[in-house]
Amino acid sequence: MQRIRLRYTKRGRLRFTSHRDFQRAFERALRRAEVPMAYSAGFTPHPKVSYANAAPTGTGSEAEYLEIALTEARDPEKLRALLDESMPPGLDVIEAVEARVSGLADRLTASVWELRLDGVDPADAERAARAFTTAESVEVQRRTKNGIRTFDARPAVVNLETHSSAADRPTDQPCAILRLVVRHVTPAVRPDDVLSGLRAVADLAPPVPAGVTRLAQGLFDEETGTVTDPLAPDREADMAPNMAEPSAAAKASA
């Protein structure tokens, strides 16, 4: 059985695709591309697809991950191209590697998010971000199926910075861009929780809903404060045997 790990996106209007909608679209793409999928046992077999930490409905993403199991070996790049052609534009399969090292989900410990705040002056966003990061705790509330839940969103946010977006907005319309790194903790702290926290500590309330995009997710590096590529260990393990194997010219000279 071969395992392939894929990175895909949710762009444009497809950011409103729910996780269940994506699952249906992806399984149709598997059939169209005639991928030799492995199936689960039981009365209702399902293709063996493992989804990892999907982004909330309504948020864009450049870094969603899943893993599929095949009964026959396939070239990862050719498989990626076939699946990408079979998916609707906006749900783009942009990277594929063969799984060489176990534990993809364990490598997804943090996310980098971008929040576009139209109608918000960057200076106001900067003050709010400073108030958030200097606070000892930032309690927010979220409605769940069991009622209202209150929790501290501050510990999960390890970095919060403000950027101007003058390059892509009308000159008469203020806009601020927030970049934040959020650990994957329990309960999960989502971008809308951070927005609620900014409202609580600095009364920052964008006049229109924020545009939210996940730029990356992976293992959080404590030393550098960055989020690393979760597929890098698989690529490195895939290259190692090739690097160790002598070339044909070296064999001939020997």
Q: How big a fraction of the residues is strand? A: 25-35%
Helix content, binned percent: 25-40%
Order of helices and strands: EHEEHEEHEEEEHEEEHH
Main pleated sheet:
8 strands, mixed
Quaternary class: single chain
* Spatial gap, N to C terminus: 36 Å
Which structural class fits the helix and strand makeup? Answer: alpha+beta
- Overall 3D shape: elongated
Rg measurement, Å = 21 Å
Structure summary, number of beta strands: 12
Low-confidence stretches: 244-254
Average predicted confidence as pLDDT: 90
* Count of helical regions: 6
Structure in words:
With 254 residues, this protein is α+β, with helices and mostly antiparallel strands. The protein has six helices and twelve strands. Strands 1, 2, 3, 4, 5, 8, 9 and 10 form an eight-stranded mixed beta sheet that branches. The protein has a two-stranded antiparallel ribbon with strand order 6-7. A two-stranded antiparallel ribbon has the order 11-12. A hairpin with a 2-residue loop joins strand 6 and strand 7 (147-152). The longest helix has 14 residues, at 19-32. It starts with a strand and ends with a helix.
Task: Explain briefly what this protein structure is.
This protein is an alpha+beta fold and 254 residues long. The protein is built from six helices and twelve strands.
Question: Key features?
Answer:
254 residues, 8-stranded mixed β-sheet, 6 helices, alpha+beta, 27% helix, two-stranded antiparallel sheet, single chain
Helix-strand blueprint:
Elements: E1 2-10, H1 19-32, E2 49-52, E3 60-70, H2 76-86, E4 93-98, E5 110-118, H3 122-134, E6 139-144, E7 147-152, E8 157-164, E9 175-183, H4 191-202, E10 211-218, E11 220-221, E12 226-227, H5 232-244, H6 248-253
Parallel strand pairs: 3-10
Antiparallel strand pairs: 1-3, 1-4, 2-3, 5-9, 5-10, 6-7, 8-9, 11-12
Helix pairs in contact: 1-2, 3-4
